[in-house]
Amino acid sequence: MGVEGIGARVTRKEDKRFLTGKGRYTDDMIVPGMKYAYFIRSPHAHATIRSIDASAAKAMPGVIDVLDGKQLQADGIGNLICGWMIHSKDGSPMKMGAWRPLAAETVRYVGDAVAIVVADSAGEARDAAEAVVIDYEQLPAVTEAVAALAAGAPQIHPEATDNLIFDWQLGDPEATDRAIASAAHVTEIEIHNNRLSPNPMEPRATLGIYDSAEDHYTCYTTSQNPHVARLVMSAFYNVAPENKLRVIAPDVGGGFGSKIYIYPEEIVCLWASKKTGVPVKWTSDRTEAFLTDAHGRDHVSKVKMAFDADNRITALKVDTIANLGAYMSLFSSAVPTYLYATLLSGQYAIPAIHANVRTVYTNTVPVDAYRGAGRPEATYLLERTIETAARELGVSPAELRRKNFIRTFPYQTPVIMNYDAGDYEASLNAAMQAADWNGFAGRKAQSEAKGKKRGIGMSCYIEACGIAPSAAVGSLGAGVGLWESAEVRVNAVGTIEVLTGSHSHGQGHETTFAQIIAGRLGVPIESVNIVHGDTDKVQMGMGTYGSRSGAVGMSAVVKALDKVEAKAKKIAAHLMEADEQDIVIENGEVKVAGTDKALPWFQVALAAYTAHNLPAGMEPGLKETAFYDPANFTFPAGCYIAEVEIDPETGETDIVQFVAADDFGNIINPMIVEGQVHGGLAQGIGQALLENVQYDESGQLLTASFMDYAMPRADDLPSFKLSHQNTPCPNNPLGIKGCGEAGAIGSPPALINAITDAIGNNSLTMPATPMKVWQALHAAH
Questions:
Q1: Whether the Cβ atoms of residue 69 and residue 115 lie closer than 8 Å to each other
Q2: What are phi and psi of 333, to 5 degrees?
Q3: Do the beta carbons of residue 758 and residue 455 sit within 8 Å?
Q4: CA distance 93 to 300
Q5: pLDDT tens for residues 287-309?
Q6: How far apart are CA 546 and CA 84, in angstroms?
Q7: Which 8-state DSSP code applies to residue 140?
Q8: Which residues 6+ apart lie within 8 Å of 85 measured at CB?
Q9: 3-class DSSP state for residue 551?
Q10: For the range 600-604, what are the long-range contacts, defined as Cβ-Cβ under 8 Å and sequence gap of 24 or more?
């Protein structure tokens, strides 16, 4: 292991171009003849389209054309789909309503795209859009999930009676009910998980280019998985044959799950490019992002947790209603089912678990995966419930958790997951020590002397990353496999290119992937180049989401690297007339162990390509590919502790301490991992204290700008105390687990537990704004 290899705190290679303004994002792309698009969107949450009159707009200066949903439908462009089939507990398939890229008859949320204007400039397109006259007939709307299931609620899709998409269950209902009936104590709580907007730094954008000479399409887009985008647009949306469609995701400024999906804009801009004969670019503004980017969370759950006389958990029963918005997005059905209910055992040995999940349509933006995707919802529910139970039982919340920890591995939960490795007590102990848990009473007294309320709360989370294996997820309804691919290409002068199906949009892949190569071969990290995000350059890959890039993407790189190393050793052994078993590669040399015989790495690479003296029967060249399909999920886990001080006169919460103790297995680059945790913590704290998507009763979005949607700022956040414990993952070659979502998963319940501890009132929903905290505090006293 060199100073640039695995475990080194290497500065990110890609940051030079980002920090100097040299990044290349979709909106930076300019091609000859390019025109600009503006999408006309519904101002109503629910309405039928009576007519569209674009004649005045088409006559305006600079306008190329105005296109609508009926034209798109006539050209055979398909509906957007959900790619994960879920069946209700009665065996019936989920009720997927039609989602047209441009609505032709009915709009179902404010922001639903109705038409596209293509013009010489963005300003001219926007001006012309105002001249398009659309006659709508408004219909009743519903925005809340519970209300959508009520008798007489507006019907959003004809396919889904009472707006119910599916009624699904996991676990053993009879065993769970028996355990609850015989319990010594049952804690009951209603949990609300607030709706969030993802707000990546770079808004979505796309550039569609149709080349009539080649009958070929190119799509630049802000995507987390360009190969899946190409697959879906060709196989399901009929935009173009796969071999005639190139998808490029250049530098992407954050995603957090919201850029996994295929949105109407990519489809429509490609179609519009062919229709108009010009390249068509669209870039979202921030209000459009609030109106159209897939939202996250939005669950209402009722929970029962049962205990025996020794305070051991005997059962957990969960009933959840999940709001999926106006349409089913690409992976929306998986989030409140297999990414949520399967994690309801948490870190605890719970013999009986039953979860029932109902998903519903509402007249709101579609809901899909947002950083953590189901795992934050499961952790929040579980950790708020066990904290509440500790208060009801009059025991230490830390010790109640400790008593119920899983201690032997592998551990089969009652809800599908088989945990492979972990040491939850180690993370608990590390967090408690870092937070000076036992000294809290003294600090609380000091706060009280100042007229402040002080509270402490913890959260023990677990998540499942690197969703796998493909056969297993396929049996559960996934429409695609969840493997990853890689190609390691050694050039004739010894420099190395790694082509990966993973996609980087802030994670630092150009550094961490290169560290694997540098550490293995002892070559400078500058000699390793990472290539991703272009379907014409990289073989089929599955992209980046669910903290899978390390556990799955890097593992594919290691498999390809194994093959490269084996071939290089064969060549070197032949050249140095040595036994292949005696060849080692280190510090940029290929050596015969125990001797002074050695060849520089570049010389072995050159020999592979000159092919003057290769072993008999060996093909020239030095490049290898691999596909890696994991045997199991990975299971990062940890313990977070938040300590807060509250001003009883204003309800303002000050986070005076935040401790995060995580087990991510082996770590490639500690500095990058710490940055990932910091970012996740900021988003989790944002959900707990500030962020909330709100609609009025008519379906108008009230939080469509940063004036109304509160994002966490630097002065909202404390200095975090981080530590890492390590139980390596036994199921991938690097022993890594994934870190990108942990902070957003573990932090909300820790904070709400701390605030409710401080104010003495457990009835508090996220976001815990000063007004809510003040009201809860004074209601308790």
A1: yes
A2: -70, -25
A3: yes
A4: 23
A5: 999 999 999 999 999 999 999 99
A6: 15
A7: -
A8: 93, 94, 333, 477, 479
A9: helix
A10: 600/494, 601/494, 601/521, 601/522, 601/523, 602/493, 602/494, 603/494, 604/494, 604/568, 604/571, 604/572, 604/575
User: Kind of pairing, strands 47-53 and 35-41?
Assistant: unpaired
Q: What is the residue whose two structure tokens read 């850029």?
A: 259
With contact defined as beta carbons under 8 Å apart, do 758 and 646 qualify? yes
* pLDDT number for residue 468: 82
Give SS3 for 426.
helix
pLDDT of residue 781: 75
Structure tokens at 179: 């355990």
Q: What average pLDDT does range 376-382 have in this prediction?
A: 98
pLDDT digits (tens, 9 = 90+) for 87-134: 999 999 999 999 999 999 999 999 999 999 999 999 999 999 999 999
DSSP H or E segment with residue 357: strand 352-360
Which residues face 722 on adjacent strands? 660
Compute how many other C-beta atoms are within 10 angstroms of the C-beta atom of residue 715: 5
Q: Return the percentage of the chain with pLDDT > 90, whole number.
A: 99
What count of Cα atoms within 13 Å lies in the side-chain half-sphere of residue 734? 35
Segment 434-446 shows an average pLDDT of 98
Q: How many CA atoms lie within 13 A of 167 on its CB side?
A: 8
Where on the phi/psi map is residue 140: left (φ > 0), alpha (ψ -120 to 50), or beta?
beta
Q: Name the CA radius of gyration of the chain, rounded.
A: 27
Confidence label for 3 from pLDDT (cuts 50, 70 and 90): low
Kindly write down the DSSP assignment for every residue of 46-76, as one continuous string. SEEEEEEE-HHHHTSTTEEEEEEHHHHHHTT
CB crowding 257-285: b at 16 or more within 10 Å, else e: bbbbbbbbbbbbbbbbbbbbebbbbbbbe
Return the bridge partners of 453, or none: 646
**CB–CB of 370/296 below 8 Å?**
yes
The residues, any chain, with a CB within 8 Å of residue 394's CB and separated by 6 or more, are none
- Range list of β-strands (E), 448-516: 453-462, 484-490, 496-500
* Three-state SS annotation for 240-301: CCHHHEEEECCECCCCCCCCCCCCHHHHHHHHHHHHHCCCEEEECCHHHHHHHCCEECCEEE
Residue 113, classed as helix, strand or coil, is strand
- Whether 735 and 666 have beta carbons less than 8 Å apart is answered as yes
Q: Which of 345, 336, 366 is nearest to 167 (CA)?
A: 336
β-partners of residue 461 are 638
